Structures are given as C-alpha cells and as structure tokens.
C-alpha cells in the first residue's frame, strides 16, 4: 500500500536533483561508451569520433558533480532507513550506495588517465581543458583501457542492481522506498 511519507523520510529537493540529474547523464553516457566501444565497427569514422568526443567532454564533469554531491551528502543527513528493514539489508544498501559513489569517481578518472597516457587533450563540457593526470606513455594505454572498461562494467552492474532493487520495492513489495526519492 502506498503511504504519504513525512518530509523527514524523504530525500531533500537538492538530493533528488543530484540523484535524477546524474542518473539522466550517467545512464546515457554509459550506453554511449558501450555503443562506441562494443557495437560500432572498429574502424575510425567521423561519426565515431563525434560520439567519442561527446563521451569524453561529459565524462570528467561526472567527477565534479559527484564531488559536489558528496559534499552535500556529508553536510546534510539523508533520511533514516525504516526500522523494519533487517540489518543485513541495510548493510547491503549501504555497500551498494558506497559502490555507486566510488565508481562514479573511478570510471571517469580512469578515462582521464587514459587520455593522459595517450597524450590526448582532456576537454570538459566544451569549456575547459583539464591537465593530464599522468605523463604521456602510450605503452600503458592498453592497461588503462582495461581499467576503464572493467570499472565501467562494475558501475553498469551496480546501476542495474540498484534500479532492479528500486523497481522490486515499488512493484514487488509495494513499499515506500521509491517514494523517498520522488
Ligand atoms: C531509473 C533509475 C534509478 C532509480 C529508479 C533509482 C532509485 C533510487 C532510490 C529509490 C533511492 C533511495 C533509496 C533509499 O531510500 O534507501 C536511490 C538512492 C541512490 N541512488 Fe538511485 N536510482 C536510479 C538511478 C541511479 C543511478 C544511475 C545512480 C548512479 C550511478 C544512482 C545512485 C544512487 C545513490 C548513490 C543513492 C543513495 C543516495 C544516498 O543516500 O546518498 N541511482 N536511488
């Protein structure tokens, strides 16, 4: 049964804005990286270069958003979890959320290091060029590529688990977890 939640059991407007705006950026950016890297033919084409440019311009901005969100999170308490939720489930939720925050930093950082060792520019949002995080060393490109791909898969799996859990709460258990973020 749906309940009207009191404000202290809901995320604040700012927390919701961070959550939904970042979800709206990260999910398409992940799919774009997957499409360019896994589905498009290997050969370099102008189309592929454009899509990759969009991926690279927006990627580092996720770091800025995540850091701002973490500062907000550290200074504004999230709503307390319901006492009905068993201890193991609370722990699983906390580990999942921690993993999402960690991967929202690690995935774009590995992309930034990748461009750095490649000796490529690191533009952000068509506004600034970021400094390289490592010296140019093309020999490390394959290794950093693997790190970027692997961390992206971890993030993708965490997001999928997170979305499935939220939907199961809403349509399976029919509890008020989803309403906390709406
Ligand atoms: C359709 C997609 C999504 C849905 C339905 C959804 C749903 C939710 C809900 C209901 C909560 C609150 C959980 C609670 O009260 O304990 C939440 C929290 C959270 N979500 Fe999502 N989410 C989605 C996408 C994402 C994405 C793409 C990310 C990041 C990559 C993300 C990261 C987080 C984080 C870090 C929290 C914890 C907030 C905190 O307490 O600090 N979510 N999400």
UniProtKB/TrEMBL annotation:
The chain crosses the membrane at residues 17-37, 49-72, 92-113, 150-171. InterPro entries: Cyt_b561_bac/Ni-Hgenase, Cytochrome_b561_oxidase, Di-haem_cyt_TM. One of its GO terms (cellular component) is plasma membrane. Keywords: Cell membrane, Electron transport, Heme, Iron, Membrane, Metal-binding, Transmembrane, Transmembrane helix, Transport. Pfam families: Ni_hydr_CYTB (PF01292). Residues 10-182 form the Cytochrome b561 bacterial/Ni-hydrogenase domain. One of its GO terms (biological process) is respiratory electron transport chain. GO terms for molecular function: electron transfer activity; heme binding; metal ion binding. Coiled coil: none annotated. It is a multi-pass membrane protein. Its cofactor is heme b. It is found in: Cell membrane. Belongs to the cytochrome b561 family. This is Cytochrome b561. It comes from Gluconobacter sphaericus NBRC 12467.
